[in-house]
């Protein structure tokens, strides 16, 4: 007699908590990265999120998924209070992590997306579960709700025909992701700890992973659509914006921290990337703070 069995499943996920918060006009949160995905849902106001690969402006009612270990800084816009909900989660299946990073990085989920109604409803369900105490039944209910939300993301990928990752793709992406993390760590050291900041060596960082420069270039072109050097430049310029937002920031000091050969070089790259000079960016910041 033939017997059919259910599979043995040993995939784990972790909820690292979440919170609902209303912040004042002008609120900002310094650049950070998490060992988890972050779901952001804006309820009132608008939020600018600056990541190492670009900027997002989220309107009220919109959501985004910030991938694992993606540096990002958040700012409230429009000179009015902003209300948002955020939740951090992770899962140990590398293929699922790969798919979520590949398909949702830099994406704003709006009412025009098919998954929006269900994802919004699930986020609001999780918000309604926030309380002072959680018994075992509450914790199990939270786990089911988070799994349900993850399944909404996964089913959206399946419906779009984007749920067939190859093992080689997963391994290559994780190696590329590790290289990107190495570049971020080296830049952080140079900016925040080195007595005399120096330009991070992309070639040296790649060599430590025991791969060739050409293979690293192939990986970055495939998964980030740019070279490792351009990725580092974009990362430096995102860091520059964060440094310029600090009180009493000076362009020459920021240029030196980022190991530019001269402030004029920094100004050219900043303008090329953002469409305005660092001086104009500082003027805009000052005007926004006083209005």
From TrEMBL:
Parts of the chain that traverse the membrane: none
GO molecular function: DNA-binding transcription factor activity; sequence-specific DNA binding
Gene3D superfamilies listed in its UniProt record: Homeodomain-like, Jelly Rolls
Name under which the protein is recorded: AraC family transcriptional regulator
Lineage: superkingdom: Bacteria
Residue intervals of the HTH araC/xylS-type domain: 177-284
UniProtKB keywords: Activator, DNA-binding, Transcription, Transcription regulation
Recorded coiled-coil stretches: none
Alphabetized InterPro entries for the sequence: AraC-bd, AraC_XylS_family_regulators, Homeodomain-like_sf, HTH-like, HTH_AraC, HTH_AraC-typ_CS, RmlC-like_jellyroll, Tscrpt_reg_AraC-type_HTH
């Amino acid at each position: 007699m033939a017997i059919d069995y259910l599979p043995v499943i040993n995939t784990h996920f972790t909820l690292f908590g979440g919170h609902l918060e209303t912040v004042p006009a002008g609120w900002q949160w310094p650049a950070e990265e998490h060992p988890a995905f972050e779901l952001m849902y804006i309820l009132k106001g608008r939020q600018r999120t600056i990541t190492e690969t670009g900027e997002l402006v989220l309107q009220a009612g919109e959501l985004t998924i910030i991938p694992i270990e993606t540096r990002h800084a958040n700012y409230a816009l429009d000179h009015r209070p902003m209300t948002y909900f955020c939740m951090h989660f992770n899962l140990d299946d590398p293929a699922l992590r790969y798919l979520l990073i590949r398909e949702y990085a830099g994406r704003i989920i709006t009412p025009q997306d098919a998954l929006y109604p269900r994802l919004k409803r699930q986020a609001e369900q999780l918000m309604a579960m926030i309380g002072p105490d959680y018994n075992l039944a509450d914790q199990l209910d939270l786990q089911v709700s988070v799994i349900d939300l993850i399944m909404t993301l996964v089913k959206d990928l399946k419906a779009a025909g984007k749920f067939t990752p190859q093992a080689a793709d997963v391994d290559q992406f994780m190696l590329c992701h590790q290289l990107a993390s190495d570049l971020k760590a080296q830049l952080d050291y140079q900016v925040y700890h080195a007595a005399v900041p120096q330009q991070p060596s992309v070639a040296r960082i790649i060599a430590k992973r025991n791969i060739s420069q050409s293979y690293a270039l192939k990986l970055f072109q495939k998964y980030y659509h740019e070279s490792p050097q351009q990725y580092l430049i974009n990362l430096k310029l995102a860091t520059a914006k964060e440094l310029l937002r600090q009180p009493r920031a000076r362009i020459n000091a920021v240029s030196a921290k980022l190991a530019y050969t001269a402030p004029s070089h920094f100004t050219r790259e900043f303008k090329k990337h953002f469409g305005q000079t660092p001086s104009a960016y500082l003027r805009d910041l000052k005007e926004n703070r006083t209005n």
